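Lab meeting, action items carried over

1. Structure of the two-component assembly. Owner: GW. Status: complete.
Input record:
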Amino acid sequence: MTEQTPASLDSTPTSPSVPDSSVRGLLLARLDNSGLVPEVRELLRELLPDEQVRDSGGRAGPVHLRSITAAGWRGIGPRTTLELPPGPGLVVVAGPNGSGKSSFAEAAETALTARNSRWEGQRTTDWKQGWRNLHSPDVTPEVSVELSVGERGETATVRRTWYGAKVDEARTKVEGADGAELKLDEVVDAGALELARPFLPYSELGSMINGSLSALHDAFFKLLGLELLAELDKRVKDAHSEYDGMVKRRNALTAELLVELNLVDDPRAREAAAALSDRTPDSARVRALLEGRSPADADELARLRERASLAGPDLAEVTGAVARLREAAATAEQARFGSAEDARRLARLLEAALDHRRRSDSPDCPVCGSENRLDQSWAEHARAEVERLQTEAAGAEAARRDLAVAVRAVHDLIHPVPALLQREASPLADLWREWALFRGVTDAGELADRAERTARILHEACHQVREEAAGRLAEHDGTWQPLAVRLAEWLSAAEAADTAETGRRHAKKARDWLRPILDELRDERLRPYAERSQEIWQKLCEHSSVTLGSVTLAGTPNRGSVKLGVSVDDMDAPAYSVMSQGELHSLALSLFIPRATHEASPFGFLVIDDPVQSMDPEKVEGLARVLDACARDRQVIVFTHDTRLQQAIAHLGIEATVLRVTRQTDSVVGVETLTDPVEQALAEARAVSMDPNLPPEVADHVLPAMCRVAMEAACLETARRRLRDEEGLGLRAIEERVASLDRTKQYVSLALLGDERQSAREAVERLRPGGWALVEAFNSGAHAPLPTVDDRKALVTRTKALATAIRRSLATSGTSTTGNAGGVR
Amino acid sequence: MTASPEALVTAAGRLLRPPPGTVHTLAPGLRARAAAVLLRMALDQALDSYWRRITPSMTRIGKHRMLCLEWYAGHDTARRCRTTWSALSAACHYRTYELPPAPAEIHTRLLEVTDLLVVLGAGPETTMPTVHAPVS
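Predicted assembly:
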């Protein structure tokens, strides 16, 4: 047995790990076998969120309640503690209205969660103001829960005390068994508390079944470990809509632009319109158009552009050159070539005459024979004449050269017909051709006159053509420029959309692939919960005409809902409208319990405030059965003012501890144990024992068995307490030990010695001399016959005495620990 | 009253869900109460014959009979008997200011009684039932 315990402890998870650890891996594995194209897989892999590590229960183990304490809190004045029996089981806290039952329920919730569902929702202000007990202004308001935490069942006290008048002016302090301060997360995992919600307050019981149950949906989603999947789905959806937006923007722009382009008479606009009208708009064509590489641009626009830059003769230069030509011609006219030749010849003659006179030294003219004519004065005159004639000849030559230069200068200004005019048959082309011909004109006068006249005309003509072409170009550009800007905008949108279209397709594929997986995993994981809900509903409303069919989740977190397949006499109907209040409460319980009792929840307790109200007797019986089932492995603490639950418990023979809360004046609240499983069993045995008409054979058969039940119940309670407080065992370990008990002797040994393998004979005899015989009789089933009522009463009395002694054995030996715990406060 | 428990149950059923065409002068609440009386009688008779098979002189105190039954017929059957019997008893008593039972509720009890008649009719278990452990 002891060897088995650690092994079985290992096999059970020590931390409440919700089964989400595998979702990512599972998805990746599915992805590999999905048959999706690599891009889609890549997209999904990229978007797949990292595993959210819920550091929940790594530290915080299972949590059970030992007691709930309140002081100066709502209906409770002086400090009052509600001690809870150890181990799993049903605890009914009964009391009339206003006795402070709910105050305890709310105290537990507030201590652990620092909030209270009554503060949220309606009449919040009233609740927020009325939290403090009115009768005890001198008591520091406090709510606390004493917990057993973790596998070792360590004691921790979570205490919330108020320092101010407002409900949130409080601080929570957590103390370990040794008084050391702990962090709240070390003891209780807030996330798990939110998820498992072990508290069902009355206000929530009534309002739980609202329209969509979206909060419940979200809780379930987390509970099922599907957040990751939901996140992935959301990311893929976002990606899809982003891509979709890009494509839509492109399409919208295309439509707008097409309208605008069709309004404009421009070759580029036509070209652009053609490119946009394609089923898949041709962004390459638009890009070419914008960069001016478009064929449409080349033709007419190029011609216009050329004409716009058509340069005619430079009128100023031509005028200058013509003027210079005229001047040179005039100069040349004066110094004609012939006169220069004459002058040169005459100069040579005179030079020869001068030379002859010098050589002959005779003043006579050798040509005409006149005497004394060639005297000194002639010689001087002749010499001067020679110089003059030579100068004159040089001047004439220069003039001739200048004229040639001037003619060439004019010729140089005459450009041949430009390429764009060459094949044209326009007046301008003719004019230019004529102009070009002037290069052949050499006569200065003619050249000057014609060039001057034609240059002016041509200049004017070219100017006109240029103006016109430029005008047309400007006209084109004026409408085109804004269009070009719009087209550039379109182009970037279109380029984005081109990639987006692929992305969108991939995202859609990814979504299509993901959806069924999400639904499948969700339904698969929800199924156990749904089945539990149906089971509970079935128990609560066994013969109701309303049946709860499927419980499914629809949508994704924040927008999800819990879909309840409710039908009335096999007709589908919305839950809200066809159910009575009692049925709605039952439905709320059906949804609440599976969530609060799912196996990963670290909370070994449930606190339900007044579920009995508005239930009919049958439902109360069903409720008692449901609570009994939950109480097999959990502490179920039910607050009720209604005696029907107690009745049902008694009639159904459900083991329960019933505590009664009473309230005296000034909010002095007391808690007493009305009955518990031991008392229940003893009371039944006592009743039967006192019946004088009970046949002996029945009494012999029944009474020892009843007494044994009481004895074992007493041992069980004592054993649980002992293992918890003295051996430091956690609930699971305790329950495993307890479940292995078979014989009454073992029960007694475990209760008294903490070890079922030792004999408790001495311990029993110490407690009650002669008690061991009773134990042995229970153990073997061999009792002395009980012929008289006195015999029967004696058996019950002995049983009660021993049971009480066994229960007290721990109380006396354990007073010190309890006393200490109290002393800390 | 020599009617068999089964006949009483059938009669109760007819009161609760009259066959079509029957004209009833009684209000449904009264009929339900009458059915409750019949059903309790049926259960009592079944219990009587059950006990007669065990002992000729079983005590007449209902609660004790129920408590003892647990050790012959088993926890579940005994508790169902007790719950149903208590519910029927409550339903067939006139209490001023209290509403008569709802036919639907009594019909539920009828189904339970029918079931219990079968279980009880099968007779006491020959072997002594194992002692019920407080916590299973």
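2. GW to write a short summary for the group page. Key points so far: Chain B touches chain A at residues 54-61, 63-64, 67-68, 70-72, 75, 78-79, 82-83, 86-87, 90, 102, 104-105, 107-108, 111, 128, 131-136 (CB under 8 Å). The two ends of chain B are 42 Å apart (CA to CA).
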